């Protein structure tokens, strides 16, 4: 795969370079929440484990504008706390592909009304749960809160129970399952005994699905980490959303069926953007070892990489189709590099190795069959070939059908 590039600044070794006169990163304050949310994610100074800790709701400054990426692609001025001028070089490569990605993102990204709906259910659930677990605190986590959600995203919930005795998640979820069957607004409860057990259910009369876990506070910390990355550059959120849509459409984004989880896929995207000759992203954990999951503000990261969205997407596909050594390397967002596989149990005999940034486990362990691994690799290669040839997102993804489906959600 050879791509002729015309960039304003330095080239990169992968078929992308990347533009980043980027959006300011919103602070991840523990006492702040997204618009429409009446309860924050807890902070990480241990105070969130206290049943007496009640963060006061405040507005969370989230950069939202349906025109921001359009303006960025068309070389206009866009105001986001400060005025930023985006140079014409950003659209030299793959303008059609870039514009398709922007359009898909603008329609599919989670709306404030979607979040408000999830928050309404969370609020009611917490009130009902506290009849059984008085000290229970329920938090929205995952893509609903990290900036990477779309209109059709499920909602992740974490029930934090405190006390001297560590609760058994299966027992707690079984109790909640019986409770939920009596609630008029909950439907289709299902207890899933995974490594992190969850209670899956839907809002009655809709297709909004929830996954509730007990005391998985690592998931809360990951929400902060991914949120920090999501707003580090204007291109991160649209790129991840499009890649998740692509992976889901091509049936390689379902850990329950032996392919990649959304979390593993997001880390793969971030790793790629970190490892360019001119990186789009740094390792936030390395540069801000405390701030990335605490109340301290992380300064904006300004990359010199000038690549368009289309260039980055094609580069992502090429990197995993031809450059990355699946048999020898571990993807590490924590270290912003790929490190060699060792003989430890986490990496030994695993087809895909993606390091969890905090626990350092393998979040791609669901890919344990060679036939599924081969299908994933083949999809990267085929999509890379098609996209390079057509320069059209429709060649690998039914863009209009997805847009129509997402736009019809209420």
UniProtKB/TrEMBL annotation:
It catalyses: RNA(n) + ATP = RNA(n)-3'-adenine ribonucleotide + diphosphate. It is an enzyme of class 2 (transferase). Residues 44-66 are annotated as: Disordered. GO terms for cellular component: cytoplasm. GO terms for molecular function: metal ion binding; poly(A) RNA polymerase activity. Pfam families: MTPAP-like_central (PF22600), PAP_assoc (PF03828). It is found in: Cytoplasm. InterPro entries: MTPAP-like_central, NT_sf, PAP_assoc. GO terms for biological process: RNA 3'-end processing. Belongs to the DNA polymerase type-B-like family. GLD2 subfamily. This is polynucleotide adenylyltransferase. It comes from Echeneis naucrates (Live sharksucker).
């Amino acid at each position: 795969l050879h791509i002729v590039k015309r960039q304003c600044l330095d080239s990169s070794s992968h078929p992308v370079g990347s533009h980043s006169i980027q959006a300011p990163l919103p602070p991840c304050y523990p006492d702040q929440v997204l618009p429409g949310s009446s309860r924050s994610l807890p902070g990480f100074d241990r105070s969130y484990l206290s049943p007496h800790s009640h963060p006061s709701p405040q507005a969370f400054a989230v950069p939202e504008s349906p025109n921001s990426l359009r303006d960025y692609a068309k070389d206009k001025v866009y105001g986001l706390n400060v005025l930023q001028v985006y140079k014409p070089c950003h659209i030299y490569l793959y303008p059609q592909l870039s514009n398709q990605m922007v359009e898909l993102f603008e329609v599919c990204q989670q709306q404030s009304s979607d979040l408000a709906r999830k928050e309404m259910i969370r609020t009611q659930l917490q009130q009902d749960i506290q009849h059984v677990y008085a000290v229970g605190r329920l938090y929205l986590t995952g893509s609903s809160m990290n900036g990477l959600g779309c209109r059709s995203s499920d909602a992740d919930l974490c029930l934090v129970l405190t006390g001297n005795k560590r609760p058994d998640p299966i027992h707690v979820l079984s109790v909640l399952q019986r409770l939920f069957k009596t609630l008029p607004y909950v439907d289709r409860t299902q207890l899933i005994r995974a490594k992190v057990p969850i209670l899956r259910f839907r809002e009655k009369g809709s297709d909004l699905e929830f996954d509730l876990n007990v005391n998985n506070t690592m998931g809360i910390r990951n929400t902060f980490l991914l949120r920090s990355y999501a707003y580090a550059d204007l291109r991160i959120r649209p790129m991840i959303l499009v890649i998740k849509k692509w992976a889901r459409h091509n049936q390689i984004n379902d850990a329950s069926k032996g392919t990649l989880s959304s979390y593993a896929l997001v880390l793969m995207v971030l790793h790629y953007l970190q490892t360019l000759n001119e990186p789009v992203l740094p390792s936030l954990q390395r540069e801000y070892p405390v701030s990335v999951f605490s109340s301290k503000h992380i300064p904006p990261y300004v990359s010199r990489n000038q690549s368009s969205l289309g260039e980055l997407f094609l580069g992502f596909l090429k990197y995993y189709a031809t450059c990355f050594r699946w048999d020898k390397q571990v993807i590490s967002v924590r270290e912003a590099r790929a490190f060699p596989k060792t003989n430890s149990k986490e990496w030994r005999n695993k087809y895909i190795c993606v390091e969890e940034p905090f626990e350092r486990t393998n979040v791609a362990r669901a890919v344990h069959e060679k036939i599924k691994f081969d299908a994933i690799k083949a999809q990267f290669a085929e999509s890379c070939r098609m996209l390079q040839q057509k320069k059209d997102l429709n060649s690998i993804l039914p863009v209009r059908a997805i847009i129509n489906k997402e736009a019809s959600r209420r």
